[in-house]
């Protein structure tokens, strides 16, 4: 047990270079004109997301790492969730943002975040986290919530992609962003939505791994929803076509995810 916790702390040390790189990436994009040839629609979204990454995700990552190093399992789950958010974000930046002076920063951020997430999960005692959770009802509710979110977003994304495939057109979101495909569609349907569904099922079946992944994915959902709200606001401020409907929907999703996360964490014993 002690050796496993020491190995986990070694992965937590990657938080330091990640924090520096996030400051350069998100801060550099906000202060300097680094986007070269990207569509104004995409750039406006990126600016909104960078604000959330710098002001919310970065402090959450650092505080989570410090408290996790002191033995807090709740903080460890939040740390995992921020890492999922960073991997998700910088896959898109590394592959969809046109080559710019921050390219190597994006690549390094993706690498550090991905390996910190893998290493942290590999050295986590899932049974310990399950044993600390004392409210089965909140766990089952969280599992149902993750399943429902997964199903709803599959319906939404497939409802956009399948008609485009049959008509031979490009989905509107892809055309607006000026990218070859939608990184959001790829990451959601290939990674995030299956992860939400599997975690929801594992949690309802009381499998130990589900108890750890649920806290991480609820953190991720809250962060991503907040980022999308800021994207819509940024688009409006920069004169891009923006609808209040997506902002309202994701605002509700973010509030629901945060409430579910707090309720879920409240069911865990401190430590």
From TrEMBL:
The chain crosses the membrane at residues 51-70, 77-97, 103-124, 145-166, 186-203, 210-238, 244-262. It comes from the Bacteria. Keywords: Membrane, Transmembrane, Transmembrane helix. The keyword Transmembrane helix applies. This is Uncharacterized protein. The lineage of its organism: Bacteria, Bacillati, Actinomycetota, Rubrobacteria, Rubrobacterales.
